[in-house]
Amino acid sequence: MTHQIKKLSFVHIFPIARDDPRRSYEESFQLVEFAEQLGYDAVWIRQRHLQYATPGAAAVLAALSQRTTKIGLSTAVIVGEYENPFNLAESLAVADVLSGGRLRPGVSVHPPQPDNPLNDVLFGPGWREDDFSYNRIQKLLDYVSGRPLRDLSDIHRPNEPSHVPSQPDQAEAGQYLQTYLESERQEPHAAGLDQRFWYGAGSYRSVEWAAQAGLHLLVDNILSARDLTETRSFDEVQADQFQAYRDQLKPGFNGQIALGRVWAPTSHASPERKAKFDAFIDKRTARTRAPRELGGKLHLFRKDTGGSLDQILDDLGHDPSYEYADELAILLPFEFDYDDYRYILEETATVIAPALGWSPTR
Predict the structure, then answer these.
(1) How high is the pLDDT of residue 277?
(2) What domain range is 302 assigned to?
(3) Residue 258 belongs to a domain
(4) Confidence of residue 114 (pLDDT cuts 50, 70, 90)
């Protein structure tokens, strides 16, 4: 195989047990620590709402930053319509500062489904007038970049306080706070974080916008397109989208592509695990045979990647979209358990990824 991947990562939903969420997080943290020992370049946390999964990925990444030292910390993805861009910018900046600059936020945005009865509860009664366009993500990037949000040039800022009021009156206390605590930008400022954002995309429109806005590209095993037909394979359409991304890249921006694939390798699996993985793929294959309508749009699913090392290499070798990938992101199936995840991570890092040209991070 001629194409070599530069980075290896994995995507995990961080499942939460209803009655013991702390234990669930500890198990997921141990999985990330294990992946770091194997040399993985990054982990992606799926952010979900109203599910037994992580809703606040920024907080979880901040905690993970204290348990790890070098693995990249990513989100797949933070859905923008649920977030206040300013508050999210603050939370991500805190996590990035704590991690030493390892954060790689993945984001996306799309309008709420108009027939969802929870819209008023989730987004407030004025959600129909809110802006759920790409502008929401652009605001987030502007805040994180350190752009001045107000003019404080008239405030005199000595290096050290000449007088700290011990029992200030209201006016004196207000002047002190304004002089020493006020900032013109979002704080803390995480230098370079705005260059490490990824967009979770699945359509031509979204990949082209991500390229023009200066966001790296994260994709998985589902896409939508204006020209879906049963004669065009998933991989052909995705490769076309990747070319569109490359063609539209913002000048001076070296956009990276992370290719997500659902992964169930079996070369060194026990007979029981192999049967489990094979049954998982067989159950999900029917949905990949033709485009399906979801939310008023046609979507196409890719068949999951599994089998022996030779079968996986053959699958990727016939996948034109793989040729564009800078990073291979292993999508851990929701239905598997902790031991299955450890097996997949180890099998990938020690057997499969080296055959694709990857070397572990040291």
Answers:
(1) 97
(2) 7-115+122-148+184-355
(3) yes
(4) confident
- Average pLDDT estimate for 33-43: 98
According to DSSP, residue 350 is labeled I
Q: Look up residue 23 and give its amino acid.
A: R
19 and 26 Cβ atoms separated by less than 8 Å: no
Residue 153 lies in a domain: no
The dihedral region occupied by 121, where left means phi > 0, alpha psi between -120 and 50, and beta the remainder, is alpha
Cβ contact 333:264 at 8 Å: yes
**pLDDT tens-digit profile of 217-237?**
999 999 987 666 666 889 999
**CA separation (Å) from 350 to 187, 275, 338?**
41, 22, 18
Q: Identify whether the C-beta of residue 240 lies closer than 8 Å to the C-beta of residue 232.
A: no
Alpha helices in the chain (DSSP H): 21-38, 57-65, 85-99, 119-123, 135-144, 170-181, 204-213, 234-247, 271-285, 309-317, 338-347, 353-355
**Tokens 């994180």 -> residue:** 144
Number of domains observed in the structure of the chain = 1
Flag whether 168 is in a domain. no
293 within some domain: yes
pTM of the model: 0.92
**Residue bearing the bigger pLDDT, 275 or 152:** 275
